[in-house]
Write a structure and sequence with these properties.
binds methylmalonyl-coenzyme A; single chain; Rossmann fold; about 30% helix; alpha/beta; binds adenosine monophosphate
Length: about 475
């Protein structure tokens, strides 16, 4: 079985051990040190079932995920800011055998019953023989749907290898690249592309811990060649550029600037291009599919498009009734459906949801609506579900937030929508009918309530109060009427 990380194999190929692999702030590991540290942790995982990983933006998370992959054990990355309700759901659904965490992390009570294994990044062990199969689960990543709690997308090892190799082809990504990023490590973007990607190539990644335009600029001026970020990060870069010539120099010198997880507004594309002479390229993916399309490094970077299907990805647009759209006219809108070795295998414990997500001929229904230009470039124009909100690059289900709001005693009725936001793409708006109109709950109270139960990025940024929610004859909330305010 070919290894996910040739540079970490028992007999390493490619990158020699002294090359840098990971850097988080002041701390760094070479390939030899990473092999030893992850090997030591992997040695303690043999025979265990799934493991949870307390995914702080720190070295321990990267070492823990690599260790689990080396041991052939599926990893479930946890958002360390998850609230009680979300954490309890993920733990009961994924049933991990233990939790891997940095030694200094204080874990919440929800994890108290679980065996804890501290990750020692200076430990020494050897990399075990890779016995895992391509279809074996590598990661279970939780992702929101329109209703109900998040679902665990089971990603096989095959999908990780396929998507990372396809990106290497599209971007000319090699072991000589040095990536800088400041993304969270409990989602595909930051973890799979942003950590496992450089390691599969034998290159290196510098993680900022927390994203700032200054941090990205500093690393790009100091040898980093690529930047990965969500549109909110590029928006903040675009805002900073006019007063920061060092940042403009840094971006001008980068080999590749890549945006994903949501659409990068054309205005931000243009501002960055004007200040740096460089164009950000976009790629399009999903937790369930990993990456589907990208503008190629050797292709024409065009604002507002996500490029062409990656090698090995079959992509089609279909009409409501399932008829494929063949026209490359930049006008005919259809749902994007994809098939390929990059796809997840199932939603954990949710055969119903898994079955509903695929067509009879094995294509995954993304729910994203798009057109294709005459040269095949895909242009995403919207989303099927109005109850999915993309804020800061996070996908958030309206139903999940509504349920949390309804659990507050001062809330009688609640509806959640997304509203355009220049920084976050969309901001979460809560429409509330208070239990007592004379004493409505304060916006901060409701934001804190949602942040504590679910996660801070799921909190409403704006609360609007109504006497009643607009409903149709069937009693269903008419969200479009809400949006018109
Ligand atoms: C604020 N905070 C709170 C509260 N309010 N904490 C508790 N209770 C509250 N009421 C805290 C937050 O925890 C955080 O803490 C700080 O205040 C700021 O929070 P926030 O305002 O939410 O941050 P932001 O500035 O709005 O964040 C913008 C961001 C972030 C950095 C761009 O949205 C982000 O990291 N986005 C990345 C999303 C991503 O990776 N998506 C990939 C999934 P502290 O200060 O400690 O942080 S999509 C994917 O994977 C697919 C495959 C794809 O295509 O990529
Ligand atoms: P998630 O489920 O959190 O993995 O988010 C996946 C969704 O993010 C996709 O279904 C798209 O709606 C959106 N997305 C990802 N990349 C892009 C992009 N470059 N442009 C527009 N939308 C994107």
């Amino acid at each position: 079985m070919s290894s996910l990380f040739p540079a970490l194999s028992p007999a390493p190929t490619g990158a020699p051990g002294a090359r840098p692999a990971l850097r988080f702030g002041e701390r760094s590991l070479t390939y030899a040190e990473l092999a030893a540290a992850a090997g030591a942790t992997a040695g303690r995982l043999g025979g265990t079932g799934r493991v949870a990983i307390w995914a702080t933006p720190a070295m321990e998370t990267a070492v823990a995920v690599v260790a689990a992959l080396l041991a052939g054990v599926a990893a479930v990355p946890l958002n360390p800011k998850s609230g009680d309700k979300e954490l309890a759901h993920i733990l009961s659904d994924s049933a991990p055998s233990l939790v891997l965490a940095p030694p200094d992390a204080v874990l919440p009570p929800a994890l108290a019953a679980l065996e804890r294994l501290d990750v020692d990044v200076r430990a020494r062990g050897s990399v075990p023989e890779d016995r895992a199969g391509q279809g074996d689960p590598a990661l279970v990543v939780y992702t929101s749907g329109t209703t109900g709690p998040p679902k665990g997308a089971v990603l096989p090892r095959r999908a990780l290898a396929t998507t990372l190799d396809a990106l290497a082809d599209a971007w000319g990504w090699t072991g000589d690249d040095v990536l800088v990023q400041g993304l969270p490590l409990f989602h595909v973007h930051g973890l799979v592309l942003g950590i496992l990607g450089p390691l599969r190539r034998g290159g290196s990644v510098r993680h900022l811990g927390r994203f700032t335009p200054e941090g990205a600029g500093r690393e790009l001026n100091d040898g980093a060649t690529m930047l990965f970020g969500v549109p909110t990060m590029y928006h903040r870069i675009a805002e900073t550029l006019p007063g920061d010539p060092e940042l403009a120099k840094a971006l001008s010198g980068a080999r590749l600037l890549v945006s994903g997880s949501a659409a990068l507004p054309v205005h931000d594309h243009e501002r960055i291009a004007a200040a740096t002479g460089r164009r950000v390229i976009e790629r399009y993916g999903m937790t369930e599919t990993l990456m589907n399309t990208s503008v190629r490094a050797d292709g024409e970077p065009r604002a507002g498009t996500v490029g062409v299907p990656l090698p090995g990805v079959e992509l089609r647009l279909v009409e409501e009734d399932g008829t494929p759209i063949t026209a490359l006219d930049g006008e005919s809108v259809g749902e994007i459906q994809v098939r390929g070795a990059n796809l997840f295998t199932e939603y954990l414990n949710r055969p119903d949801a898994t079955a509903a997500a695929f067509t009879e001929d094995g294509f995954f229904r993304t729910g994203d609506m798009a057109v294709r230009d005459p040269d095949g470039y895909v242009r995403i124009v919207g989303r099927k579900a109005t109850d999915l909100i993309k804020s800061g690059g996070y996908k958030i289900g309206a139903g999940e937030i509504e349920n949390a709001l309804l659990e507050h005693p001062a809330v009688r009725e609640a509806a959640v929508t997304g509203e355009p936001d220049p920084d976050l793409g969309e901001r979460i708006v809560a429409w509330i009918v208070p239990a007592d109109p004379a004493a409505p709950p304060a916006p901060d109270t409701l934001a804190g309530h949602v942040a504590d139960r679910l996660a801070p990025h799921k909190r409403p940024r704006l609360v609007r109060y109504l006497e009643a929610l607009p409903r149709n004859d069937m009693g269903k909330i008419m969200k479009r009427a809400l949006d018109r305010g």
